[in-house]
Amino acid sequence: MSWLALFLAGILETVWAVGLKYTEGFSRLWPSIATIVAMAASVFLLSLAVKTLPMGTAYAIWTGIGAVGTVLAGIVLFGEPVAFSRLASVALIVAGIIGLKLFSS
What is the value of pTM for the model shown? Predict the structure, then answer.
């Protein structure tokens, strides 16, 4: 269950990171509320995950999922550049996430 909570926390990190774009500096009410709810839910799920997972591993995976998801969302939603160097960097983050998962209890 901890790994599922951690995965969902990472997805919600992507949601709130993307949500920041739509809040326009927290000047738009509903996007701001949705972003704050996603932030709180993400941190709550992370807190559940670190009950049984190593904190450093959980935090690194949480931020990794959020970073990869945010880069991909930026490409898909906002037309950010798709360059080999960006995709290679994302692949390295994914490799690190997989490594942490494989070598964690």
Answer: 0.90
